[in-house]
Prior knowledge:
The chain has 295 residues and is mostly helical. The chain has 13 helices and no strands. It has helices at residues 5-31, 34-56, 67-88, 94-101, 104-116, 122-138, 143-147, 150-172, 179-201, 211-238, 241-246, 250-263, 269-286.
Amino acid sequence: MTLTPKHLVLLVLLTLTWGINWPVMKIGVTEYPPLAFRALSIWLGLPFVYIAARVMGQSLRIDRRDWAEVARLALTNMTVWHVVAILAIQALSSGRAAILGYTMPIFSALWGRALFGERLSLRQSMGVAAAAVGVALLLWHELGQMTGRPWAALAMLAAAAVWALGTQQLRRTTLQVPTITLVWWMLILSALVLTALTAVLERDRWAAPSTVAWGAILFNAAVIFGFAQTAWLVLARTLPPAASTLSVMMIPVLGAVSGALWLGEALHWQDAAAVVLMGAAIGSVLLPARRVAAA
């Protein structure tokens, strides 16, 4: 693995934007129907992706033979995640929804082993274990509350598992298209599904968004779908699955902290311990391995 300065910049920006977006999403779905919120965010984010592609000089054209693969990747990397996560966050605190969502690296390791025969190094295995313990600590005070809403917790875990599978598939795809082109079409396919679902399930709740809802929608459009989604797929396509997934494990910590600051969600000593463990998980894949010089 070659970790470049570009990767490090993307990781820092991705952690900040995705981390603080969890309370933003919680506010958004409190103010507006969740599927409509997500659909509007994606549709309004597409112009940002289009402008970025044009500035970079990238074509948005996809060959006919590649459509099946694009649809498959869109389903596992975006569509299931965006639909299920935005519904589940209504019933969970924003911080704990982030924590459940970022069990994804653990599922990624399991998928890699089960489907692709991927073996982790000892250091990477220790990183996955540290991430798992960190997630358990972050959920320490939430288990009692989640037992009253088991569908939301289970749904978020299922979405994380599907996203993890998509990350493994994305790393192995043979598509010869720029990442931003892939993002463009995967977002469109996901937006079409979300639009159809909100038309069927939420039409009676449609109304003009409030000022607060517009703020959350526009933040997601410009920052999350205009930048972060592309940044994540760049990392997922260029770094090994263990590195790309474990490297973003500080996101749920930031989600929990920002939820506490903005929404009054409680923090405990277990959260501080989890920060140390998440840092160890990130270090397990990002710090350079020692090399033994040949005699």
